[in-house]
Here is the input.
Amino acid sequence: MTEIVFPPGFVWGSATAAYQVEGAATEDGRGPSIWDTYSHTPGRTLGGETGDVAADHYHRWADDLDQLSALGLGAYRFSVSWPRVQPGGSGPANRAGVDFYSRLVDRLLELGIRPVATLYHWDLPQELEDAGGWPARDTALRFADYAATIVGALGDRVHTWTTLNEPWCSAYLGYASGVHAPGRTEPAAALAAVHHLNLAHGLASRVIRDLAPAAQLSVTLNLHVIRPATESPGDTDAARRIDALANRAFLGPMLDGVYPADLLADTAGTTDWSFVHDGDERTAAAPLDVLGVNYYSTTLVRAWDGSSPRSSADGHGRSAHSAWVGADRVEFLSQPGPHTAMGWNIEPAGLTELLLRLHREYPDLPLMITENGAAFDDVVSPDGAVHDDRRVDYLRRHVAATAEAMAAGADVRGYFVWSLLDNFEWAYGYERRFGIIRVDYQTQERTWKDSAHWYRRLTTTGHLP
Ligand code: FCB
Here is the structure.
């Protein structure tokens, strides 16, 4: 194999999200978010686990930033907790919350690490959900106000502002299948949420441009790599339909300024989309500096003829309610292994394919892999080490897949491992570990897994070990 070397300006980073690592759920004036409510509702998360303490990053942040530095990282992607900054989702800032992120950003800059801040990684203030949540238009307006508050305070000390993380999950898992907070199962509401997230992105983008003109502007999407089981017209159409719901429902308004006609037609039985007001799609299409791409695995679909029980292995959790609004005739098939502990198939070629699709469709838009990584059942050796060979192999193959896309022309500027630390993996609680640094939840001790040592070799040399 020829050696893979990355260009000198390529950015190596790692990512976390507020609710997954911070803990300190009720400290210093933080208000409750939908994830506090959801995780505290019996039966919602594995083992009833919550983010109350998580990796205690709210108190250990300075040590955690030292870990980033020791890893040789050039960037850190974190998210700002909306209910820490605006406890009820509107009104004046909670000074202690803003100060926390201000200190974090200053320390990153001292360490020479670029702050990459996501405004929304799923922790909607509960008061806003009580007023209707993302299906309500007002939530998008509140989001723009929140953006003004935090961007006004941190400005272009933050290198890259990301409006939303994976709005697909917020809308469909939150409001259609209910496997994420707030756990509603209302298909029409899920589509309204899709739109108000797109609108929120556009409104916040303007705020970011105004208040932090020197910062980079981005959004992070979990675009699906969808493969039809066969080339039959039925299976091909199933793939088209899922592509519309998963990918083009966001790429359309955000990058082309219009919803795809097939998406509107496919979902006409659920909603008439009258929540889209004149000018909204233009607002959503704020020009971006970089598109964040999260990638873990692929999706395999076929047309379902109704004759046998429908399989629904879409990798997004189990629910009696489908996340896929208007796609009742689509089956999601299990895919051949190997799989990660999430049950997700390992398919690095899917990442190359996705990057090249984006390069083809949006040739002038730089790309950044804002999440990629894997959960495995880590074992601590008697000497305390974690020999996570499968994670190292997963990362190595996906970094190589990135290089392959770049060699074929894709403009990829950086790569962030998910995740820096083991953390609260949403509905799966603490059972699924994604960190390259292990967290002992009894003592909060951090230990580098082999993957962290491996990543350091990559980040400090630019050569794929
Ligand atoms: C993504 C989320 C992130 C993490 C990974 C495993 O969907 O953005 O918070 O949970 O999956």
About this structure: The first helix runs from residue 18 to 21. The chain has one domain: 11-461.
